Amino acid sequence: MNELKYEFYIAGTPAQVWDTLVSPGQVKQIYYGSVIRSSFKPGELLEYVGPGDGGDETVHVYGTVLEYVPEKTLSFTHKVGPSYLKDRENYESRISWQLEAVGGCTRLTLIHDDWHPDDPSYAASDSAWWHILSNIKTLAETGHTLDFGSF
User: Fold this and answer.
1) Which structural domains are found in the chain, ordered by start?
2) What's the order of all strands across the beta sheet hosting 4-10?
3) What mean pLDDT do residues 96-104 have?
4) Which residue from 3, 19, 137, 142 puts its CA 20 to 30 A from 87's CA?
5) pLDDT tens digits along 31-73
6) Cα separation of the two ends of the chain
7) Is the pLDDT of residue 151 over 60?
């Protein structure tokens, strides 16, 4: 499978954009009500937990922190939570966020790669990332997220 790679320019500092990626209150706004839980230490657990089929503490995504450099890089392995498996194998991929100041804005690059060829999460990820990235950009620039309605 091909890597999923997206690049956005956001009218905000790397610190402002970084907050949308790691601050629980902001993460909750961009990840459909889920919060991020992690010490952000390489080798330790990272998980997105929030409302879902498993209740308010549904683990949607989890993995292991690979790299954490504030305002620059966050990389972690990615597996879907147990409620998404429905008797199928849980494949691992990798998510890497990269931030770089460019003039008066920030270039945000997301690379979602290391996909297993049989991973059924690829198509859903490709679709969902556009919503999440649009919300990151909008939240960092305006303090609000977009209303996508039901999709």
Assistant:
1) 4-33+67-142 (3.30.530.20)
2) 4-10, 105-113, 93-102, 73-80, 55-69, 45-52, 35-38
3) 97
4) 3
5) 988 999 999 999 999 999 998 877 778 899 999 999 999 999 9
6) 25
7) no
Cα–Cα distance, 30 to 130 (Å, whole number):
11
For the chain, what is the mean pLDDT? Answer: 92
Give me 55's structure tokens. 């209740």
Query: Six-digit token pair at 39?
Result: 């010490």
The first and second tokens of residue 147, run together, are 């209303």
**Whole-Å CA distances, 32 to 14, 69, 115, 134:** 23, 25, 23, 13
SS3 77: strand
- Round to whole Å and give the CA distance between 25 and 112: 23
DSSP tag of 58:
E
Give the model's pLDDT for residue 150.
64
Q: CB pairs under 8 A, 24+ apart, for 17-20?
A: 17/99, 17/106, 17/108, 17/136, 17/140, 18/70, 18/71, 18/99, 19/140, 20/136, 20/139, 20/140
Radius of gyration of the chain (CA): 15
